[in-house]
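note to self: dont lose this again. the chain is below, predicted strucutre after it. 107 aa total, dont forget to put it in the shared folder this time
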Amino acid sequence: VKGLVEKPPVAEAPSNLIISGRYILQPEVMRVLEKQEKGAGEEIQLTDAMATMIGTQPFHAVTFDGARYDCGSKAGYIQANLAVALGRPDMADEVRAFAVDLLERRR
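---
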């Protein structure tokens, strides 16, 4: 990993890769966070603290090939749960029947 950017505008994104919010961090990042200025959304961003540390210690990433859901939004959270439920053999039929029934009633 050579750099990180928190929520860049699509036109300014340096790549098509994302951070999915799963980290194994060294304790030093907490000291950087204590001094971190507010970033995107006027919030202190862990991504910004990590970006500050790039070059001072190794950062590694794993690419993921699969579906991604924005669980930071209400709709994304529901979409993620629905996708997981429909992918589980022990739940799929019941959840699918519920969804179909709900959609029919909401027309």
